[in-house]
Structure formats: C-alpha cells, structure tokens
Amino acid sequence: MSVQESHIKSVKSGKVILAGAGPGDSDLITVKLSKALRDADVIITDRLVNPEIIQNFAGKNAKVFFTGKQGGSDASATMKEINSLMTKYALLGNTVLRLKGGDVAFFSNVLDELQNIIENKIPFEIIPGITAASGASAYAGIPLTARGISQGVQFLTYYSDDQFGQEKWKQLAAFTDTLVFYMSANNATDIAGKLIEYGAQVDTLLAVIEQATTPHQYVHVTSLSQCTTDFMGKTFSSPSLMIIGKVVQLHESYNWFQSIGTGTVFKQLI
Q1: Is 183 a catalytic residue?
Q2: Which of 15, 25, 41, 69 is catalytic?
Q3: Taking the CB of residue 71, how many other CB atoms lie within 10 A of it?
Q4: Which among 74, 84, 110, 143 has the fewest CB atoms less than 10 Å away?
Q5: Chain Cα centroid distance, residue 131
Q6: Eight-class DSSP state of 267
Q7: 69 belongs to the catalytic site
C-alpha cells in the first residue's frame, strides 16, 4: 500500500455490517450480503457460516478472521475479543463485515455487539439472513404454520433444568401449535419428558433436523413418548434444530430435499 493509499484509508470512515449468512446452503445468502462480502475490508465469521460463502463471494484482499463461537470450546473467540476486533478495524477506517450463521436476530448475541458499536460511535447496518428455523422447515417440508394444523409458532432455546419454571413448562405443554428449539437437540429427551410431565399429548410429533439445507441434512422423527427410547444417548451433529407439533406430520408428504445423508427415520407412533 502506498503512502497516499494509507492516508486515504486512515481518514475514511469505517463501519460495521452485522449480517446473517443463512442456515448452511451458500446459495441461500441474500444479494445484499453478496455485495457486502465483495466490498468488505475485514470479515469476522462464526463457525457455522459455510466456508464456501467466504471462498465464493469475499473480495480477494479481504482480511478474514474465523472466530469459532462454539459454546464451551477453547478454540472459540470470546465476545470481548470479537468486539475488540470489530472496533479496532472499524476505527482504522475499514468496512468490517460481522458474519453470523442464520439470521442476526435469532439467538446470536447481537445485542452485545450492537452495544459495543454504539459505545464506540461506529456507523453500522444490519443485513438479515434466512434463520435456521426457516431453512430447516423448508428443506424438511415442514411448514411452521399451516391452516387447520398450526396457527402460531414459538422460538426457544433450552440448555439447563433450571432455565424454565413450572409456569413456563405448563404454558409450553398447553401450546397446541408449533415449538421450535434452537441449539437444544441434544436435550431432546429432557424437553420431551418435561412437556409430558406438564400435560402435553404424548403422541405429539417431534423432529430433529441435523445440518439443515446442507448435503448432510438428516431428519429424525419421533413422538414425545418415544423420544427417550429413540434418542437416549444419541448426539446430534451441530447445527441441529428441533420442531415439535402437528406440523411435523407434513414431513412425510412434503419432504423434497434429497441429500447425501438422506434418511428420514419414522418410528412406530402411538
């Protein structure tokens, strides 16, 4: 870089773009994100972002940081480290693209990053992406709402016994539409047990969709009553998403996506 180019960079106003990279299939990114990838000086990307998105769309001179962001992993960058990277390069006059899997508004800790950006008076914008629930439901042929079957949907995550109190479990057990659990598939047996304990219908269907929209997508279907038998001791590949409700029955008729790992596991339901 010449002295003149260095000077231009130093006085240029930097910015941060917070963007959702979609659920896995690199063809599912938005046109706006493809332009942002092309123009970004610095890209900070999470573990669940398909590497093909960087390979196919990022500018050749972009500086790329892979930050991991897998819960409990020592290889993951902390939120403080990610915020520090964004701040450092934006204040140097760079366009910094912060890439997150799915959509930035769904279970992505975007508020921590927004607060940091505002505190440092950095211009920013947000580019939405296809969230995991939309990608998984579409590629599994499971509409999240459907006339006569489900009139609404709740999006949740569950990771510990003390996360929900009795009233919350009662409300979830009584909810007759669709429940979607992010980052909770490996707790499927606990969730199913709690829902039954608080009054849910035991024949309610449950689907776990592994690595949705990718060539390794795999859909497992069971019922709340059979969940422990079918899933006990099983570890699902990340990312996995769980859909609970009558809409899961639609998968058998409307599953259209054929993947390398094609395997729809139907159990004998009560």
Answers
A1: yes
A2: 69
A3: 9
A4: 74
A5: 6
A6: -
A7: yes
Q: Is it true that the peptide bond before 23 is cis, omega within 30 degrees of 0?
A: no
Q: Over the stretch 90-110, which tens digit does the pLDDT of each residue have?
A: 999 999 999 999 999 999 889
What strands lie across the sheet with 205-210, from one edge to the other?
A: 153-157, 178-182, 240-244, 205-210, 218-223, 264-266
The pLDDT tens digits for 197-244 are 999 999 999 999 999 999 999 999 999 999 999 998 899 999 999 999
Helix axes 188-197, 166-174, angle to 10 degrees: 90
Say what the pTM is. Answer: 0.88
Residue 245, classified by CB atoms within 10 Å of its CB into exposed (0-12), middle (13-18) or buried (19+), is buried
Packed helices 110-119 and 79-91: angle between N→C axes, nearest 10 degrees: 40
Q: How many Å separate Cα 120 from the centre of its chain? A: 27
Q: Are 143 and 180 in contact (CB under 8 A)?
A: no
In angstroms, the CA 156 to CA 158 distance is 7
242 catalytically annotated: no
Integer Cα distance of 174 and 223 in angstroms: 16
Q: What integer is the mean pLDDT of 21-46?
A: 97
Q: Choose, from 25, 86, 183, 194, the residue flagged as catalytic.
A: 183
Domains of the chain: 3-130 (3.40.1010.10), 133-266 (3.30.950.10)
